[in-house]
Amino acid sequence: MSEKMPDKTTDTYLDTNLSVIISSPAGSGKTEKLARRFISLIESGTDIHRIVCITFTEKAAAEMKQRILSILEREQPETLESMREHIPLMRISTIHAFCLKILKRFSIELGMDPSLEVMDEQVSEELWMESVYESLMSEPEGDQPFFNAIRTRGLKGWQTVRRALTEIHLKSPAPELILNNPESISNLEPDAAGMLALYSECLTRYRRKKAAQHLLDYNDLELLAYKALSLGSQSHNILYSFDEHTDHLLVDEFQDTNSLQWMIIDKLTEEWRSGLGAKRSGGVRPTIFLVGDEKQSIYLFRGANVSVFREAGDKLTRWMGEDCSFLEVKDLQLLFVLVILPCFDSAFASCSASASILFLS
Question: Which of 317, 225, 308, 311 is nearest to 264 (CA)?
């Protein structure tokens, strides 16, 4: 580490001209940093409704909003009072609520029912288990040896298959990825062909049940949102609308992001990374702020992919080129110097880079 590093990284996460990724362990104040980043954006003159903050649970979204308001009430009551009427405009939500808002906002253009509803995880699990049970009882065509093998194992065989199917379903951010890549489930069941046929049957039944009740699950939301942003005829209009109304994107617990969720975020900020577009020409510098711990994810069962953390860092680094600093801090003393100490004194803040990728391991 160079001697200049402390100066360069002082208060990096509070500099609203920078895009930042912070990876630090549990208990290090990651969420606090995101809340203070949000406040710094407000202090810099950004309208509260032009900041999007993504969390991974409804509870976390509510807590983030309350944390921001509590800090303002305690430290900047005048700022809080001046923005009080705009508090309902705060755009803090889960990734799924964000995707749903996109789909509902452009439902007519996308040919979707504007009254669509999203089922919670319990309902989704119940429908899936019903589909698995019905599929196992019907024995889809295509691989009799596979089902004969299950029978010879008795109840244990059926339970093993049921668990495997549920695991496949939960870990896949997009079912098409499984159906088009049978090798992806070969590690779960030796007879991948039979398992794939059974999974396809389960998925067909599951989709019918959802359609009959006019419901979407979380996977549907992510996949439909991504298709709307990248493949649909309305993709340009949707991206333009997001760009027109958003200047800054913050994501909490980024290690819990799966590949498809990152693809959505990536697509939304594509023009920002280009350095072109109406924002730059108008003097606005959009930023991305990602915070998490790449060594800890509680949503691996839902397809979270910690490698996405590094991929995001690499992409932002390429985006900013030589103006980007990529730091990985492992020494606890250096962690104190670079991160904790600056929180007490911002007078020495100094950073000329246009973006900084800060990794605290």
Answer: 225
Q: Which amino acid is at 209?
A: K
Of the candidates 165, 253, 254, 239, the residue with the CA atom closest to the CA atom of residue 201: 165
Looking at residue 342, its pLDDT comes to 45
Q: In a 10 Å sphere around its CB, with 0-12 CB exposed, 13-18 middle and 19+ buried, how is residue 12 labelled?
A: buried
Nearest-CA neighbor of 225 among 256, 180, 268, 254?
268
Q: What is the CATH number of domain 5-112+219-360?
A: 3.40.50.300
Q: Are strands 287-292 and 51-55 parallel, antiparallel or unpaired?
A: unpaired
**How far is CA 16 from each of CA 11, 43, 302, rounded to the nearest angstrom?**
10, 9, 32
d(CA 127, CA 208): 10
Predicted confidence (pLDDT) per residue in 98-131, tens digit: 999 999 888 888 888 877 788 888 898 899 889 8
In terms of pTM, does the model score above 0.85?
Answer: no
Q: What is the domain partition of the chain in residue ranges?
A: 5-112+219-360, 120-212
Nearest to 23 by CA among 292, 223, 308, 354: 292
Structure tokens that stand for 108 in this block: 């007519």
